[in-house]
Amino acid sequence: MSTKPEGATPPTRTLTERRKAATQLDIARAAAELFTEHGPDGTTAEDIAQRAGVALRTFYRYFRSKQDAVAPLLAVGAERWRERLAEHRAEAAGGLPAVLERSIAESLAAEDETAAEGLRWTRGLLRAAVEDPALRAVWYRVNQESEERLREVVAGLAGPDADPLEVRLAAAAATDAIRIALESWAETDAPVRGPGSPSELAVRCLRELMGGMRLLGDPAGA
Length: 222
Known about the structure:
There is one protein chain. The chain is mostly helical. About 65% of the residues lie in helices and about 0% in strands. α1 packs across α2.
């Protein structure tokens, strides 16, 4: 397994790539709005394209289905978290579990209204996914892809002598902690901050998942 010594810092995007990503995110937000308002069954690809202000052919240039359109919105939080986690390289020597816990708590803390809005969109989509297998499949795919990308970041933080199995287990535990926390939170009307919030639930989940493992240092909270 190859690793990048600087925590797998992503390359700078070109202007064309940034514009493409912005268009995809606009379409994703439009899809999330419509799914929340009318449900996936009551929403068409044409509806999403119209809400996003793009041609239908543009929609299908980027997405295969209406459910697939929300993937960028679901993935953007994980991408920002991985970038933030990579910045904690100097702290990793004290124990990776503690670094994972701190970075997860920070990334889900909804420190501003933009972050809070992102969590609310996720809640609406997860509730819609209960009755839509295709939407659930997108959610699971986004989490699997996030876990695969996270392995490289964890390996960079853990150093060249880290056990690849432990790196993989740590990435899986962190990803599952966030997924389970968001799914559990979406089932409730708990706030985006404070007791019962995604941040609090994710830290609890991570401690439970890593508590019985010797993963790259002492388990968080030990």
